[in-house]
């Protein structure tokens, strides 16, 4: 047991894991300043693999690291890979396959694969981190996490127990936030019981690094060799003249080795490269690993713990995405966490980390599933094309299709509190809010030397407002109005929110001031070729304003002001709110533009053309009376210009929130927002949803009106099918319900409402899950008649139909355990009988039921063809579960599924895709080898089957033990013989000397020669 240190440290952020993702997260927090950080790693870096692991950074990762001042040092040591090659099984070069997409990574100055082994990357990251006074603590292990939820959010509610693995000394850190960057076996994820959804296949891959010699024509590039025995073999030129080779290690190849060691890795690498020859001069590293794809169900939990990198997603190395995806996580999270810790943003900003990263990770996983199968010469699951298609050709198509996503350049985020739907003036623009801000060439004033936008917008934890002036000759008046609006506003002079300005004219001049005829906004850079304006979709004659987030993504854009109405400062303020810069501030008085209640109310009244009605009420300090008139008149905002809609409504909400009678006004505002937004038929629902979300977030959690506003949000989403907007927020629903303290009936209404929203959006699984939640609110202990009420029966039948017809739902135990479902046996016995068949019976039983109840199918609207197919899949699962030999003959499967023998493989593959079984088909032996199966029910019969299998295993093991015992005995006898022989030889050798021993050991005598 280790000794205990009395030291107790307090830090703002504890980062667990000292790999690239953890180091980059810590580096940003330290670089941005004002935040205390500790980072620990349980493995001593001196003992870490010297060369292996990740090697490749794609363009978007390099761009992000460039804006963090990390990429230059990486580039100094890397192998910059711009070329690729693919060879067919005969060693002939083929085009357009494998890694060919890497030759076409455009729209970036980092248009190449930056190849540098992880060891060297980490050394650079650790050195840069130390420059800001933070060192990696190693080998220090996290042994326990405790979260005290009675401590206020944002305070030191996390207690982390640590252990130094060298000295055994234990210590404690208290922190506000904890970041789990501790890899695929994450202790943080497991300690907090965060599900890790997905699977690991039986496929194994090998990676080996070293210095090699080969007669392959092209070697210093990214290559693919289409091997008939080792899949699509990876060839990657590495830093320092080294090379990585990667290949599939099939079950057939595995059987050749009792132990997979360096010699085996080299032998397989040589075999994988045929018909080319290969020789290893040095082996730096090798590994063999299983391929799988898994995603954590939550990236942010308990309002204070984050997962990043492999801790929240793992996948194959097929597309070289592991470290790249982790870097995206780190860069997305760090500035948001810094803003919240420094009081520059509300805590709700942290929710956008999971909202933005999880969908993109899931997209990657979907690609990776296809790519990893194709690289092992298997067609993707669900493949509907030619069953004899060449996986190598399909791989080239898939990798080309995913190329911009793989490079990171097309990774985008949906509309949220950061990315403004409808802020784009020109819908045909080449870039829309939520996408990366492209890097473009600019010229410095005076010297006119070239620079880049990314170089002038480094990630230092600030937003950038970039004013594209267009041609100043046509935009001069708009620029002056913009300048006046900023000068007149106290907002920017008092703003704590970090903003930097840039001005980009579409031409050059000897003096920026003279060119613009006004004071520039921040630094000036010229766009002489007008390529920057074109890339950002800004009209030269109108100009435009672009907002860039600290991480380089583009949340909003709007036009310069081009008419008298838009020249007034109030309209400019509305534009700023619409750009969402102002929504980021933490305090209510900072959420919108500066000014007193009276000033802001008068401004809004002027905008609504009711200024004279409001003035006397404000003069008499009758705020609620003034608010009544503003709220009544706000229905006109539904026809306000799209770019002013959100800001004007948010200003109204800000004023209403300050009233002690807030609950009197909010229902009317919600009513207005539920009506059509006539000024924006396309984006209107999104605009209204944005305002309702703002209202919801601003109201105190325990306010009962929050429940009503959430229902208004649900009604709006239901009318628009925007389920994806709602889904990420539902993770907090249980917490909200507890805060609202609503009874079971209201909970049931809420769950049913959410189920309806999901159903209308085509999300049957989401609808089903919330129907189950609704059904669980019926308590048979309270009133037995409640479970058989019309409402309970209607919901039960709806859930049952979804479960029966679903292509993904095969486990019915969640239904059969519900009292309301059990009550169907009395009220709807035919439905209940069908449920019993799908729960535990087989195809023959279903066919009998169908023949006896033909009219039932027509009346109920159930699709017999769907049910029949599903019953076949379930029957196959039962068949696999009941076999004792783990082998199923094709003939037996064909009989049970009532299909022709030639269709057996197709049906087995469908059952595997459904996740009901795992195994392998043997065409040669006409059997299916069962590796894993799903038990549909687990009762006495299944226990007997398990007992039978255990008895068989026991018998087999007893036989093995007997063999082992016999071999041991033989070995012992042989050992004794060898010992006796050795003794005899020793005795003989001694007799040739001065004397010899005669007799038994206990009464030996020495016979001499003298």
Automatic annotation (TrEMBL):
SMART domains: PINT
Keywords: FAD, Flavoprotein, Oxidoreductase
Any one GO molecular-function label of the UniProt entry: translation initiation factor activity
Source domain of life: Eukaryota
Start and end residues of each stretch annotated as Disordered: 973-1010
Domain (PCI) ranges: 764-935
Keyword presence, Flavoprotein: yes
Amino acid composition bias (Basic and acidic residues), ranges on this chain: 973-986, 998-1010
Signal peptide span: none
GO cellular component, one term: eukaryotic translation initiation factor 3 complex
Family: Belongs to the PheA/TfdB FAD monooxygenase family.
The name this protein goes by in its record: PCI domain-containing protein
Organism expressing this protein natively: Scytalidium lignicola (Hyphomycete)
Species classification: Eukaryota, Fungi, Dikarya, Ascomycota, Pezizomycotina
């Amino acid at each position: 047991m280790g000794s205990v240190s009395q030291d107790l440290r307090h830090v703002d952020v504890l980062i667990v894991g000292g790999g690239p993702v953890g180091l980059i997260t810590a580096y940003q927090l330290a670089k941005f300043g004002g935040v205390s950080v500790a980072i620990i790693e349980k493995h001593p870096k001196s003992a870490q693999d010297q060369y292996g692991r990740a090697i490749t950074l794609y363009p978007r990762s390099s761009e992000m690291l460039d804006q963090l001042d990390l990429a230059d040092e990486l580039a100094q040591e890397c192998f910059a890979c711009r070329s690729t090659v693919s060879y067919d099984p005969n060693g002939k070069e083929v085009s357009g396959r494998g890694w060919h997409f890497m030759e076409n990574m455009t729209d970036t100055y980092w248009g190449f694969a930056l190849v540098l082994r992880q060891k060297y990357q980490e050394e650079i990251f650790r050195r840069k981190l130390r420059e800001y006074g933070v060192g990696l603590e190693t080998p220090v292990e996290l042994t326990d996490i405790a979260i005290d939820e009675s401590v206020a959010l944002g305070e030191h509610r996390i207690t982390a127990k640590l252990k130094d693995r060298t000295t055994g000394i234990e210590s404690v850190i208290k922190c506000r936030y904890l970041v789990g960057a501790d890899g695929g076996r994450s202790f943080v994820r497991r300690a907090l019981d965060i599900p890790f959804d997905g699977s690991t296949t039986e496929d194994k891959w090998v990676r080996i690094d070293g210095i090699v010699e080969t007669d392959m024509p092209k070697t210093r590039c990214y290559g693919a060799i289409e091997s008939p025995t080792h899949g699509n073999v990876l060839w990657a030129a590495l830093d320092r003249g080294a090379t990585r080779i990667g290949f599939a290690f099939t079950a057939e190849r595995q059987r050749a080795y009792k132990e997979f060691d360096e010699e085996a890795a080299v032998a397989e690498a040589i075999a994988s490269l045929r018909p080319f020859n290969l020789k290893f001069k040095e082996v730096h590293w090798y590994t063999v690993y299983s391929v799988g794809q898994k995603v954590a169900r939550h990236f942010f939990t308990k309002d204070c713990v984050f997962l990043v990198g492999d801790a929240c997603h793992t996948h194959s190395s097929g597309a070289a995405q592991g470290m790249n995806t982790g870097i995206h996580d780190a860069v997305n999270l760090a500035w948001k966490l810094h803003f919240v810790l420094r009081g520059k943003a509300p805590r709700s900003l942290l929710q956008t980390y999971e909202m933005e990263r999880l969908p993109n990770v899931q997209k990657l996983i979907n690609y990776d599933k296809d790519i990893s199968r194709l690289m092992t010469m298997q067609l993707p699951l669900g493949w509907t094309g030619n069953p004899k298609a060449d996986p190598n050709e399909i791989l080239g198509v898939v990798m080309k299709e995913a190329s911009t996503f793989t490079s990171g350049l097309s990774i985008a985020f949906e509309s949220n509190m950061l990315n403004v739907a409808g802020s784009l003036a020109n819908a045909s623009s080449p870039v829309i809010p939520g996408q990366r801000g492209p890097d473009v060439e600019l010229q410095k004033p005076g010297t006119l030397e070239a620079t880049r936008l990314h170089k002038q917008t480094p990630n230092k934890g600030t937003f950038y407002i970039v004013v594209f002036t267009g041609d100043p000759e046509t935009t001069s008046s708009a620029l002056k109005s913009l300048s006046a609006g900023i000068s007149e506003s106290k907002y920017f002079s008092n703003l704590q929110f970090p903003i930097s300005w840039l001005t980009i004219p579409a031409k050059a001049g000897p003096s920026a001031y003279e060119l613009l005829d006004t004071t520039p906004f921040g630094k000036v850079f010229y766009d002489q070729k007008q390529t920057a304006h074109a890339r950002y979709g800004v009209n030269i004659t109108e100009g435009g304003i672009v907002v860039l987030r600290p991480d380089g993504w583009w949340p909003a854009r709007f036009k310069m002001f081009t008419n008298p109405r838009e020249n007034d400062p109030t309209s400019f303020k509305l534009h700023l709110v619409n750009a969402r810069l102002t929504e980021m501030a933490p305090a209510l008085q900072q959420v919108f533009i500066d000014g007193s209640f009276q000033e802001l109310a008068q401004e809004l009244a002027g905008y609504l053309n009711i200024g004279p009605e409001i003035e006397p009420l404000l003069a008499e300090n009758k705020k609620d009376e003034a608010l009544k008139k503003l709220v009544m008149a706000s229905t006109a905002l539904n026809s306000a210009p799209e770019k002013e809609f959100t800001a004007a409504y948010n200003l109204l909400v800000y004023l209403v929130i300050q009233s002690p009678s807030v609950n009197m006004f909010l229902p009317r505002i919600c009513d207005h927002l539920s009506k059509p937004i006539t000024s924006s038929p396309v984006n209107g629902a999104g605009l209204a949803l944005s305002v309702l979300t703002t209202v919801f977030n601003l109201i105190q959690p325990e306010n009962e009106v929050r429940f009503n506003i959430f229902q208004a949000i649900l009604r709006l989403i239901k009318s628009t099918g925007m389920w994806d907007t709602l889904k990420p927020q539902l993770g907090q629903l249980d917490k909200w319900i507890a805060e609202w303290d609503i009874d079971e009936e209201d909970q049931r209404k809420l769950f049913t409402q959410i189920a309806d929203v999901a159903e209308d959006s085509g999300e049957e699984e989401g609808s089903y899950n919330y129907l189950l939640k609704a059904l669980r609110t019926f308590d048979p202990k309270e009133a037995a008649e409640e479970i058989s009420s019309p409402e309970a029966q209607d919901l039960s039948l709806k859930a049952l139909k979804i479960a029966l017809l679903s292509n993904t739902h095969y486990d019915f135990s969640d239904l059969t355990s519900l009292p309301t479902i059990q009550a169907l046996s009395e009220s709807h016995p035919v439905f209940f009988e069908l449920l019993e068949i799908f729960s535990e019976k087989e195809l023959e039983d279903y066919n009998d039921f169908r023949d006896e109840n033909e009219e039932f199918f027509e009346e109920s609207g159930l699709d017999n063809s769907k049910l029949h197919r599903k019953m076949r899949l379930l029957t196959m699962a039962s068949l696999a579960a009941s076999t004792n030999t783990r082998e199923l003959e094709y003939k037996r499967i064909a009989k049970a599924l009532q299909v022709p023998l030639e269709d057996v493989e197709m049906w087995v593959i469908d059952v595997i895709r459904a996740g009901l079984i795992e195994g392998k088909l043997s065409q040669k032996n006409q059997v299916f080898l069962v590796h894993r199966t799903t038990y549909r029910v687990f009762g006495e019969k299944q226990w007997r089957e398990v007992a039978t299998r255990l008895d068989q295993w026991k018998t087999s093991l007893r036989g093995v033990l007997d063999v082992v015992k016999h071999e041991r005995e033989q070995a012992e006898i042989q050992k004794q013989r060898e010992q006796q022989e050795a003794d005899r030889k020793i005795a003989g050798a001694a007799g040739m000397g001065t004397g010899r021993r005669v007799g038994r050991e206990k009464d030996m005598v020495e016979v001499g020669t003298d």
